[in-house]
Write a structure and sequence with these properties.
The chain is built from 19 helices and 27 strands. The chain is of the alpha/beta class. The chain has a 6-stranded mixed sheet with strand order 1-2-3-4-6-9. A 6-stranded mixed sheet has the order 10-15-14-13-11-12, sandwiched between helices. β24 and β25 form a beta hairpin. It starts with a helix and ends with a strand.
Length: 736
């Protein structure tokens, strides 16, 4: 046989192996995802399936190299793409190409009350994740703002389930449009950091369904979220990362969630519970997620070798494993192996502009007596800036949301750049907080500094007397016990002597604007002494530029509060009832449905600044509201309308809020509940009609005796308002 014949025979023998019909379905992106998933699943070994469902490093899980199925790579969010850390340590990996765009904290996003801003946010941060080859973004956070002491409130979208639901959906869609999964967290009832790893939360079914679940439900059923992260705490005496009721009965059962349940880092505590009760992917550090342990200990995770051993010993079957692996494969085929591949972009000018736009739309003007703002640079030539937060970096620290950014424009830098040569800007620190070691930097040490608050206050007051106008920039920061993961605040007041400093500045100079940078409400004992107050949040990379634009009037403020500012702690329901913080083992939500403005309404408590509140540099007039009919059928809708006119001299945005009141109910209900909103832009003299449509769901409550939503026929009111306490008109109607 000659060489040519040998080659021909060999090629004929090889042909069946190379035949087109033998191409694995899971590699064919034109095939439906479910076919691809099943094809890949039946090709995998038991060991490969187990490897798929637990971490292999701090932020990654294994793929199936033999089959060409890639790894999953997670990134902390929800405000930016976290710097690379070492494979098996939390410390930074020392990359020079991982400096991201920091976007405003989610409290700022919520304060925009604008779903378009949320869509822009999601799209932009999703592009950054995709560029960095992350296919899961650990965010957004939608836990409810229950008390102003929760150290992690700055990561969430406020106190109202309707507002949170409307803002989370476009964020998710924006992220996932880039082939990156949004991992919505923390499911559920993770509303305090104190004792978060041990506490069992006791809450009635009505409160659970009406207050704490709606945003997660919207994320799954409307946003189509591809991943959900479990919480650290317990519910029904089971940890939320291995909770039968939350994960199996509700999330995967009632809501038909087909994505992946990811554990919070170290949130899994028991192999058998995790197998049976709906946990899909386990992440953490060692086996408790928080402490140091043996290097590369991932085989010891609860869903690793212990799970594999149980299967091999015949103590558990493989049905649950196949379901978990199936969900992880589905995640991979939706992201890293999707038909349409995205490349993303990173720390770009477009992303900086997106962050600045969101920040400008979220800044809230709380008070503006004597029209001190916007600052008139023809009148004020000597400007004094006071406060540590004018220069302090706010993108680092705070726990898992800490970021390494390409740039961070401080408030002082932004103000100086905007004013230029039009006036002189002087800076005095005025107060200082204890220095802390930089997070995630190996061997980092806090700088030792002597702080004399009395001397600093004296210096600031002296400078204030010589200035034309004073801008105080203070509030909270990312230190432990301020706005930070892992600990709650001790009180509502400002720390580091700020309250005394503000009062002294007000006495020294009547032209004082106070800027609060925070993710939480603070008390303001000096509120009547100060003409202007601005809530500026944590605004990310473009913080200084956004703030300066509002202070100088380049941007007309249009943000509105996504949570209530109480006068004092006892004005908060959970605090008043002794329902927070509970013990290390048990926490009972005694206030039930009455969270935020619902509590203030029920007790007739006047807040410092109410939910939904925000001022503008222009003025608006509202007409009498109308409805398209007098009654709603059980399967119908009603549309309510009101005219809004800009009666001022500059363009502005007005927020129209629609609340619904059930005038007679079989069960106790809040006085009113937010059920619609619309933000409208108006030129001077312009008038527009704002229409909001609701259906029966807006009138319903959860009947825990029947386990279903009920809309009782009867009389209701549609309430148009500029905030929870600023009622502009009511329309009575009936549900037939």
């Amino acid at each position: 046989m000659n060489l040519k014949t040998i080659v021909m025979v060999a090629s004929m023998i090889a042909l069946p192996v190379m035949a087109q019909e033998e191409k694995p379905v899971y590699l064919d992106t034109n095939k439906p995802i479910e076919q691809r998933v099943e094809d890949a699943l039946q090709r995998m070994t038991l060991e490969e399936k187990v490897a798929l469902i637990h971490a292999q490093s701090k932020f990654s899980s294994a793929g199936v190299p033999r089959l060409g199925i890639p790894e999953n790579w997670m990134s902390d969010g929800p405000h930016g793409i976290r710097a690379e850390v070492l494979w098996d340590e939390w410390f930074g990996a020392g990359w020079t190409s991982d400096s991201c765009t920091a976007y405003p904290a989610l409290t700022c996003l919520a304060a925009t009350w604008d779903p378009a801003m949320s869509a822009l946010y999601g799209k932009s941060i999703g592009e950054e994740a995709r560029y960095r080859k992350k296919n899961v973004l650990l965010g957004p956070g939608v836990n409810i703002y229950r008390t102003p002491l929760n150290g992690r409130n700055f990561e969430y979208l406020g106190e109202d389930p309707f507002l949170t639901s409307r803002m989370v959906v476009p964020y998710i869609k924006g992220v996932q449009s880039n082939g990156v999964a949004a991992c919505v967290k923390h499911f559920a009832l993770n509303d305090q950091e104190l004792n978060r790893g041990t506490v069992n939360v006791n809450v009635d079914d009505r409160t659970l369904n009406e207050i704490y679940l709606p945003a997660f439900k919207a994320a799954v059923q409307e946003g189509g979220a591809w991943a959900i992260m479990g919480a650290y705490n317990q519910y029904k005496n089971q940890h939320c990362c291995e909770n039968q009721y939350l994960l199996n009965d509700i999330l995967k059962g009632k809501w038909k969630f087909d994505g992946v349940v990811v554990s919070d880092w170290g949130g899994v505590h028991n192999t058998m519970e995790a197998i049976k009760n709906g946990m899909d992917m386990e992440f953490g550090t060692w086996t408790n997620g928080l402490n140091w342990g043996a290097s590369n200990a991932y085989d010891n995770y609860y869903l690793a070798k212990p799970y594999l051993d149980l299967i091999k010993q015949g103590k558990v079957g493989t049905d649950e494993l196949n379901d978990k692996a199936r969900r992880v494969l589905r995640l991979i085929f939706r992201t890293n192996m999707a038909k349409e591949q995205h490349y993303g972009s990173f720390a770009s000018p477009e992303h900086a502009l997106a962050g600045r736009t969101i920040a400008e739309n979220g800044i809230v003007l709380l008070q503006n007596n004597k029209n001190l703002l916007p600052l008139d640079l023809k009148k004020y030539k000597k400007i004094l800036v006071v406060g540590e937060n004018a220069t302090k970096r706010m993108t680092i620290g705070g726990g898992s949301s800490s970021l390494k950014v390409k740039k961070e424009v401080s408030p002082l830098e932004g103000i100086k750049a905007r004013i230029g040569n039009d006036a002189t800007v002087t800076y005095v620190e005025g107060y200082a907080s204890p220095a802390v070691a930089e997070q995630d930097v190996k061997g980092a040490k806090a700088q030792v500094r002597e702080i004399n608050l009395d001397a600093m206050r004296e210096e600031a007051v002296k400078a204030a007397k010589e200035a034309d106008v004073v801008i105080f920039i203070g509030g909270l920061n990312k230190n432990e016990g301020q706005d930070s993961e892992g600990a709650d605040r001790k009180g509502l007041e400002l720390s580091y002597g700020q309250d005394a400093l503000i009062s002294a500045l007000a006495a020294a100079n009547p032209n004082l604007a106070v800027v609060i940078i925070s993710g939480n409400a603070v008390s303001m004992p000096w509120v009547k002494q100060v003409p202007a107050i601005v809530e500026a949040w944590y605004e990310g990379s473009e913080a200084g530029n956004a703030l300066a634009a509002v202070l100088m009037g380049d941007v007309n403020p249009s943000g509105h509060l996504p949570f209530t500012f109480p006068v004092k702690l006892q004005d908060n329901g959970a605090i008043a009832l002794g329902a927070y913080p509970g013990t290390a083992e048990q926490e009972t939500y005694k206030e039930g449905l009455f969270v935020g403005y619902r509590w203030a309404d029920s007790k007739k408590i006047k807040p410092l600044f109410p939910f939904g509140y925000g001022l503008s540099y222009t003025t608006f007039a509202w007409s009498k509201p109308t409805a398209d009919k007098n009654e709603m059928s059980a399967d119908g809708t009603m549309t309510f309308s009101i005219n809004v006119k800009n009666t001022g001299t500059r363009e502005g945005k007005e927020l129209v809020q629609l609340y619904v009141s059930d005038l007679k109910s079989s069960l106790p209900r809040p006085v009113k509940e937010l059920k619609g909103f619309s933000k409208v832009t108006l030129a001077p003299g312009e008038e527009k009609t704002v229409s909001i449509t609701i259906d029966k769901a807006a009138l319903s409550y959860y009947d825990d005796t029947k386990g279903e939503w009920i809309a009782e026929p009867g009389k209701f009111e549609a309430i148009f308002a500029a905030s929870a306490t600023d009622i502009r008109g009511k329309v009575p109607f009936e549900l037939k």
